[in-house]
Amino acid sequence: MQQLWQHSVAVAFGSRWLADRLGYRSQAGECFMAGLFHDIGKLLILKVLDDLQRRGEWPNDMPPTLLQELLAALHREQGARLIRQWNLSPLYASVAQDHHEPVKDDATALHLIVRLVNQACTKLGINLYKQDGIVLTASPEASGLGIKEVLIAELEIMLEDGLSQLQI
Fold first, then answer.
1. CB 3.0–4.6 Å: which of 30, 99, 140, 150 could bond 103 by disulfide?
2. In this structure, what are the phi and psi dihedrals at residue 70, rounded to the nearest 5 degrees?
3. Which pLDDT belongs to residue 167?
4. How far apart are CA 30 and CA 20, in angstroms?
5. Contacts of 37 (CB under 8 A, 6+ apart)
6. Alpha-carbon distance 168 to 155, whole Å?
């Protein structure tokens, strides 16, 4: 839960920061909220599993790889469903649903920003796992936003510096 919280908050703050830097100041608040909610499905799944474990209906010794597979397979759809149930902006549901899918031709700046910051956090290990080898400058998101290497480096530094403030 702590890692998920840190990741979501980092993506939210990083998305707002990047929106400001790219000249999307009017969308910075929406980028923040979309970043905060993009993985809400993981929280829902963890809560459901915790409730099932407390009632003795789910094993307490679930292998970590199984948990990762459940989260990966279900979090996007369940997150989008939860956001729609809460009557939040359809933009947030769309980001939650699509943030791991291939970039669409009609992807909005909001979608691209949240996706890029999510990848940056994963590259830096500000996530439930770390994935080495992500080349942000070569991503379709960076290309779609027209981001240069210097801004991506600044984003990574800002995220790393901000992580120390997110320690719970």
1. 140
2. -60, -45
3. 57
4. 12
5. 8, 79, 83, 88, 92, 95, 96
6. 22
Q: Exposure string (b/e) for 14-41, b if CB count within 10 Å is 16 or more? A: bbbbbbebbebeebbebbbbbbbbbbbb
Phi, psi of 124, deg, nearest 5: -85, -5
CA dihedral of 45, 121, 96, 16, whole degrees rounded to 10: 130
- Residue located via tokens 């094993």: 59
Q: What is the pLDDT of residues 127-166, one digit of tens each?
A: 887 888 899 999 999 999 999 999 999 999 999 988 766 5
What is the Cβ-side half-sphere exposure of residue 29, based on CA atoms within 13 angstroms?
2
Prediction pTM value: 0.90
H helices present in 38-63, as ranges: 40-54
Which region holds residue 104: left if phi is over 0, alpha if psi is between -120 and 50, else beta? Answer: beta
| Spatial contact of 4 and 43, defined as CB atoms under 8 Å apart | yes
